[in-house]
Amino acid sequence: MKVKYIFFILLIFLSIKTNKMENNITRNTKIIDIINNPIFENYGRYIFPIHRQISSSLTIENLESIYTWYNYMKPERTIEIINYFISQVKKGNKIFYDIYTDKEKQYDRSLKETGLFFFRGNPGQKFAIVNAGGAFSYVGAMHDSFPQALEISKRGFNAFALIYRQGGDNACRDLARAISFIIKNKKELNIDINCYSLWGGSAGARMAAWLGSFGTKYFGEVDCPKAGTVIMQYTGLSEVNNDPPTYANCGTDDWIANYKVMNNRINKIKNQGTDAMIEIFKGLPHGFGLGEGTIAEGWINNAINFWKKQMK
User: Cβ distance 181 to 99 under 8 Å?
Assistant: First the structure.
């Protein structure tokens, strides 16, 4: 009886703590409290970079400190995204999907580092997969894929943000599996798989370009339809391999991804007779994300319109 009583009190405590957080996400909210929030079950840790050390005192206000190579990270966006996740869970909507089976994870423990966050658009609409950068050493989703995915969903399209493993080859294999998983479960997810788009920033842009060019079979998965559009941000990829229609953007002050390399790549794609466009933003550095408060703000509308053009 005593054990049952203690368990009941613990449940009440967790419920009070969870409800308090749900109603009071602020700049001072600690990241560790979000990760450990029972509402996120066992996937709270995937919301933030799993290959970055997160101190017990780190707050949303100072979250940018662990996102190396990124600029213009907005605490307001982080708060909006966490609140979105919470609201979706409270509505009974599943927001996190495993892309590998338990048996596969037992065989290869690194597969536990993966998953898909789902940002719902309109039922039956097309989908996008957004891949954050992080030099293939970590996944900077809170700045480089979650905000983009949320904006895509606001426009009515379904969007997924991929959490992938370290290393370029592993990352591409995880993206190939994600594409296969989504297409296989299209009915459950209630999506249109025609002319889907692959998005990415920095390392994530390379993933999008490689899967867009080579397809899923090249990376060890079943042969799935290729993407109808690729959306790339700030990556110095020069190679062109039968790419699908491609939108790209970059800043002139990016010391990691030279805008001239990106511009030349877009021209090569055009020369192959494929639709492509690039936006170059004067004075912007690497990793500007949505570019809110900068001259790049609104680029995502142009990218979505480019994607919609390919649907016709």
Answer: yes
**62 within some domain:** no
Containing 128, the helix (H) or strand (E) segment is strand 126-131
Query: In this structure, what token pair is assigned to residue 161?
Result: 């943000």
- In the beta sheet, which residues pair with residue 281? 251
Q: What is the pLDDT of residues 151-200, one digit of tens each?
A: 999 999 999 999 999 999 999 999 999 999 999 999 999 999 999 999 99
Which is it for the CA torsion 63, 134, 207, 239, positive or negative?
positive
Any alpha helices (H) in 113-252, and if so which ranges?
Answer: 141-144, 146-154, 168-184, 186-189, 203-214
| Closest C-alpha to 189, from 94, 98, 114 | 94
Q: Which segments of 180-305 are extended strands (E)?
A: 192-201, 229-233, 246-251, 276-281
CB atoms within 10 A of CB 196: 24
CATH number at residue 219: 3.40.50.1820
What pLDDT is recorded for position 9?
Answer: 45
Q: Distance between CA 71 and CA 171 in Å, rounded?
A: 23
Helix (H) or strand (E) holding 116: strand 115-119
* Alpha carbons 241 and 278: distance in angstroms, whole number: 18
Phi and psi at residue 33, to the nearest 5°: -70, -35
Average pLDDT of span 266-287: 97
Distance spanning both ends of the chain, measured CA to CA: 66
pLDDT in tens, 99-150: 999 999 999 999 999 999 999 999 999 999 999 999 999 999 999 999 999 9
Query: Domain span at residue 283?
Result: 74-310
DSSP state of 234: S
- Report pLDDT for 310: 98
Count of domains for the chain: 1
C-alpha–C-alpha distance, residues 168 and 156, integer Å: 31
Q: By the 8 A CB rule, do 163 and 116 touch?
A: yes
